[in-house]
Amino acid sequence: MGVTKLLIIISSMTFGGAEMQTLELANGLVDRGYNIEIAVLDHKQEIIDKGRPEIRFHILKKKSYLDRRVVKALKERLSVFQPHLVLCVDLYPALYFRLAAMGSSACLPVATVFHSTLPRDVKERFQRWYLTRLLKKNNRLVFVSEKQKDYWLRTHKGLRLHHSRTIHNGIHLERFHDFLQEEAKITATRRLLAYEPNQVIIGNCSSFRVEKRHQDLLEAVHRLKSDGHPVKLLLIGDGDQRAHIEKRIRELGMEETVYITGHITDVRPYLAVLDVFVLSSDSVETLSIAAIESQAMKKAAVLSDIGGAAEIVEEGINGYLYPAGNVEQLTECLRNILQYERWKPMGEAAYHHARQHFDRRQMVEAYHQLLMEMKGGSHGG
């Protein structure tokens, strides 16, 4: 069938789970001989250097929600590149594709990958309502967790079940797991952070946004500290909520307990020093790349029970789930791990779970099979 040309359309190329998963997928498909171009709607391109040199990026730098100039540029890419297939990463890029493809005689097979579950607010709920109406019959739907798929198909009746499938996010497991052998680097990181051998390190890796609910984790760790547990909190990341988080740290008197890394390009040295990974979000999360990366590094996980968290955490085996926003339950989950020193056996179980379900090779193979069905004109699935 010759070389398959794939155009991927994505909103941004900044640090984030959907963006990192897209690059992992694109790199894996390049290994299979795909010719790939990635159209980035906005100006953010912090992680494009993680893509294979064979991938051509087009940074379109949109200035507004519907930028006619970007639609025109995307229409030009479709004409010049003439892809066999199109992959839209979430609904917003699907809107731009539909606008760019208007008037074209070609009927390109297109798949849309969903990376979110619960909407953040009423505005986002409304946007979903009208954007889902763009998904025509030839559009394949890819969800990254079963629970997410069930939610979307239940709340958006127009989506077609037989055109949808679930493909779990996958990561380069060895890149994370093998870092655990870098004892000198891990020791240096612990020294930098001034951690003592007897201290238990709880951590989070995410952008500092409202829906991530870092304040819940601060409160839980404050309670554990008050109970006498020798805990420290490591917040890996940065974002527009940092000032609010730092203010709350001061209010709780936790300046000596909490360390914030800021933006970093390699999270592995910091994930490596953790004992327990926590994700406390109340929306957006679907199948957290950060949580999977922590599992690859043998960390017990405590996740808010939203999206596909139950497909990452096996309750009581590799971690715990708790209701989003319930600080009391979050604290109790962490207390159970600390009291019985369960972080190491849970971490081992987490690694085995990640190997079984979240290896990028499995993900790339599943997408390859889907894309070949689409290229061949099959409408099954």
Helix content: 40-55%
Low-confidence stretches: none
Gyration radius over CA: 21 Å
Q: How large is the share of residues in beta strands?
A: 15-25%
Question: CATH topology of the largest domain, what is it called?
Answer: Rossmann fold
Figure out the total of helices.
Answer: 14
Explain how this protein is built:
This protein is an alpha/beta fold and 381 residues long. It has two domains: 183 residues, Rossmann fold; 185 residues, Glycogen Phosphorylase B (Rossmann fold), CATH 3.40.50.2000. Helices cover 41% and strands 16% of the residues. Strands 3-2-1-4-5-6-7 form a seven-stranded parallel beta sheet, sandwiched between helices. The protein has a six-stranded parallel beta sheet with strand order 10-9-8-11-12-13, sandwiched between helices. Helix 8 links the parallel strand 8 and strand 9. The longest helix is centred in the C-terminal third of the chain and has 16 residues. The protein is globular, with a radius of gyration of 21 Å. The two termini are 21 Å apart. It holds the Pfam family Glyco_trans_1_4. This is Glycosyltransferase. It is an enzyme of class 2 (transferase). One of its GO terms (molecular function) is glycosyltransferase activity. Its EC number is 2.4.-.-.
